[in-house]
Amino acid sequence: MIFTVAIDGPAAAGKGTVGRAVAAHFGFAHLDTGLLYRAVGALVREGAEPVAAARGLVPEALEKPGLRSPEVAQAASEVAAIGEVRAALLDFQRGFARREGGAVLDGRDIGTVICPEAEVKLFVTASAEARAGRRLAELVEAGHAANFDSVLADVQARDARDSERATAPLRPADDAHLLDTSELDVAQAVAAAIAKVSAALGR
Ligand code: DC
Predict the structure, then answer these.
(1) What are phi and psi of 105, to 5 degrees?
(2) Of 11, 47, 67, 80, which cross-links 38 as Cys (Cβ 3.0–4.6 Å)?
(3) CA-CA distances (angstroms) from residue 48 to 1, 54, 120?
(4) What is the CATH number assigned to the segment(s) 4-201?
(5) pLDDT above 90: residue 93
(6) pLDDT tens digits for 123-173?
(7) Pocket of ligand 1 (CB under 6 A)
(8) CA-CA distances (angstroms) from residue 194 to 5, 21, 104, 128, 156?
(9) What confidence tens digit (pLDDT) does each residue in 22-57 have?
(10) Are 162 and 80 in contact (CB under 8 A)?
(11) Ligand 1 atom 5: the closest Cα is on which residue?
(12) pLDDT for 200
């Protein structure tokens, strides 16, 4: 069975949590596409040229420690604005989306560019303040020093760059279901997403 769940939305809206839970529930493969851009961003911070880094990306690069740091997030957001970097990562993501057995991909352009034919499209969002609060908790948990105002500024700067870039800007696909998680806990957000996928599967 070929069945793709495309999950898009801004940073820290809960896409990854929802994506992993949906994949586990239905037994689908899951790809956090932000990790591809983070891996390229990390290589650029080490001195690599962005397009060459994207073209030569190997699976082990996604396992590198530190990909979740704010510095790498910033670098990821910058390389993600380069059209040739996005083009280099396209075939891998498309192949993953249409693999046998079902796939969930989360990112910014999955429903609009990578897999417009996805059977289910979710646009997961939340207020900038709610997202900054969650990201701060994650950073503190992971041992990074951070404060709310700087995390909020970082979230807003990334929102602006991700939404305003010329290539594949962040926006909901016309046929995406909007899921605002500002007032939802994880279980409620996951249940809402599972309900949409179940309806599309006819289960
Ligand atoms: O989801 P994330 O925070 O790990 O994403 C890191 C950066 O990568 C983010 O600033 C936007 C970019 N990105 C993108 O442009 N397209 C995707 N499909 C996924 C992430």
Answers:
(1) -120, 135
(2) 67
(3) 39, 10, 36
(4) 3.40.50.300
(5) yes
(6) 999 999 999 999 899 889 988 888 999 999 989 988 888 888 888 888 999
(7) 11, 33-34, 37-38, 73, 76-77, 80, 107-109, 158, 162
(8) 10, 8, 12, 24, 29
(9) 999 999 999 999 999 999 999 999 999 999 999 999
(10) yes
(11) 34
(12) 95
Report the nearest-CA residue for atom 6 of ligand 1.
Answer: 34
- In this prediction the pTM is 0.92
Q: Is 202 left (phi over 0), alpha (psi -120 to 50) or beta?
A: left
Report the nearest-CA residue for atom 13 of ligand 1.
34
Please state at what angle helix 83-97 crosses helix 34-45, rounded to 10 degrees: 140
First to last CA, the chain: 14
Between the CA of 37 and the centroid of ligand 1 the distance, in Å, is 6
* Domains of the chain, residue spans: 4-201
Phi, psi of 44 (to 5 degrees): -65, -40
Place of tokens 């010329």: 166
